[in-house]
UniProtKB/TrEMBL annotation:
Protein known as: Chaperonin-like RBCX protein 1, chloroplastic
Transmembrane segments annotated in the record for this chain: none
InterPro entries (alphabetical): Chaperonin_RbcX_sf, Chaperonin_RcbX
Domain of life: Eukaryota
One Pfam family in the UniProt entry: RbcX
Presence of keyword Chaperone: yes
GO biological-process terms attached to the record: carbon fixation; photosynthesis; ribulose bisphosphate carboxylase complex assembly
Keyword annotations of the record: Carbon dioxide fixation, Chaperone, Photosynthesis
Gene Ontology MF term list: protein folding chaperone
Amino acid sequence: MESSTILPLSQLSVSPWPKRAHQPTRSRPWTRRAYQPTRLIRCQKMYVPGFGEASPEAKAAKNLHNFFTYIAVRIVTAQLESYNTEAYEELMEFLSRHSLNDGDKFCANLMRESPRHRSLALRILEVRSAYCKNDFEWDNLKRLAFKMVEESNTRLMRDYVLETSPEEQEK
């Protein structure tokens, strides 16, 4: 397995020669010294700017976390609708007043609403955890994401070529 090193941008050199601690001033700037390549940094991953402290994977995980809360709420509401209509109506009323965009905030607010709502929140947390661990098909997610990216890229490139092709414009 090949190891990789990630250096901060301030430590990366764009010069083909390594820096010397005490480099004398050259009296003849027209003379060239022999080419000395810097040590290559081999990194297997792309650098993605603009994500601050979190990686794109961490951002995706946060979105999945919130999505799992949404799924858990859907599962619990479907269960309550069939056997506990009173709790179902309370949860639906709470849903109408609170957003599900932030799953943890939603569950925290639900817990603090009343003792009855607290039990609903605990049920949602249990279902969210169980769905994530046991039912979500992680391999299928990866396969579908790859497939969607490839199909989308192919379609967009094909459409662009067809739009810009001189043969198509003449017909």
